[in-house]
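INTERNAL AUDIT FORM
Audit reference: QA-55
Scope: verify that the stored structure record matches its stored sequence.
Auditor: D.O.
Record contents follow.
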Amino acid sequence: MTRERLAAMYGVDVAYHSAPGVASPVPVDTVIAVLGSLGVDAGTDRAVRDALAAAEQHRSHALLPPCTVLTAGRRTLEGVLPGLPEGTQLTVHAGAGDALPETPRAPGRYTLRAAAPDGRTAHGDLVVAPARLPGPQGRTFGFMAQLYSVLSARSWGMGDLGDLADLAAWSGRTLGAGFLQINPLHVAVPGHPTDPSPYRPSSRRFRDPVYLRIEAVPEYAYLPPDAREETDRLLRRAAALRDNVLLKDALIDRDAVWELKAAALALLRAVPLSPGRRAAYADFLAEQGQALDDHATWSALAELHGPDWHTWPAALRDPRSTQVARARSAHLDRVDFHSWLAWLTDGQLAEAQRAARDSGMPVGIVHDLAVGVHPGGSDAWSMQDVLAAGMSIGAPPDAFNARGQDWGLPPWRPDALAATGYAPYRDLVARMLRHAGGLRIDHVMGLFRLWWVPQGRPPTEGTYVRYDAEAMLGLLALEAYEAGAVVIGEDLGTVEPGVRDELADRGVLGTSVLWFERDYTGENADRRPLPPSAWRESCLATATTHDLPSTAARLTGEHVELRHRLGLLTRPLAEEQAADAAEVAEWIALLNRLRLLPEGAADEEAVVKAVHRFLARTPARMVGVWLPDGVGDRRPQNLPGTSDAYPNWRLPVADAQGTPLTLEQLAASRRLHDLAEEVRRALGDGARTP
């Protein structure tokens, strides 16, 4: 029991529910390993007693935490600081000004001071989060797309930030779309080949320069003749690479794209910046500070020693070491090159959001925040003090995966985050919202708890580690409030009771996917499809996601055949097909009962429209249209459970026959226009007219 008490003090669960009402104990060795990663020795009874005594002494001595998070209108300061000695005086200050007369109710950042009767004093940050985020104005629809997959006639073999701005401007002005949700644009870990998954990045704090539109860099116009000639050769090679994808059905090759862009960027960097541009770059460097310096240094060192910092010379594994400082100075030109890339990318991101808002979009670009980072990448190197070494996040065993999941991503240390006043987390969220109208939080349940798997152990031998959700959500809400952005939480899968209610109370939208919306409640739950009136209002309603079959593939059963060819089925093909057909038939029957399918189920395009009419009939604040659904694409962008067997994250958007389509062809697609018109008409007064 003593070890259980110690585990509870650090938010480490000693049991979890593997099924409703079924509690499964966590192996003792797992609890010991997880506590060890938090700097707590729990290997022996004596060590546990000593650790408990040390923790209790620390808690009794500390008057204030580095950061106190209070949600406006929820609790008083005394309510969030219950352990203060009786008679302690609390005062709140706005900046360096005089003390405020009472607990502030206006969202913002303050300084909190405490004076105890025994003479002890302390001060720390006070963050007051808004009681609720307002969300989008009215109801709106928008597109969801993987940016790399949307190639234009001008891009260099994969979709880029110029394409993003163009897609946003066109869909907002022509179709009345209110937002454009895209995949994470985080910097990838370089490699041969590079891991194409946007959900396993090197850094979540900076965006990948592979998405740069080269011709949109202002210095492009001032290339000298010899550099212009070389750039023209690169343009011809880029055109061939693009045509190879679009005309010859090849896969998107981000390494080949980056090879060409890196060569072009080297030429562009030789063009002197104008005085105004030079001043803007200097301001950017000053604003980004240590975080950019770290990332650029890691990028330069990775070119020399490889992309996994664990394999670097020992002296370079500590970002604060003298040897790293010397290496930074020795390779200052490459460090500056990577800083310059971050500046260019930031500028083009700003242009894309400007184009979206100028088109009339009430939200604009919705960026995606991955749940973690690659253990060998930039963020893991520079933030070792707040990430748990030897641990990986994943998912426990459930009805869909009896072996659990290990995602290979190191988790935040909740104790280290709290000790820093949540500075790394606050910084990350602020950076993600910098040029965003909205932010999707991948696996939003991770703000409450994450499944930690000790290195070398199977996912079945992990445990949940809990975070201060009041602080994590409050800080997220304040940053979004100040940015005027909506927040969407990806809350699919196993969700702890109360989490969805808490998110909804704070104005964080959930994610509702058509095929998962069934009646699972009550003793007599029949698991039939939920009628639109039973859906929640506080959500983004969609037919599919990047990890699921397209709507056309779902309706035709082609996704089952694909999984059969790849050996992913757990039942005989005929049994899987029968179950899938029965599920689709249930939804078709509901669409018919609701008179949403007057064209009849034999018309695939009509059923896709009916599915989206259904989504628009729900009370959902946002309706998302998977862009490939607009042209009948059959292929998923990602097929979970595969790596080399399926070209995950490397497919361009294609039509129903599998022919890749350019952004220009998408914009001219009658099918896409008709689908958008159906959704806008079904939303009625809540939709924006272009």
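Auditor finding: record pair retrieved intact. The chain has a mean pLDDT of 94.
Action required: none
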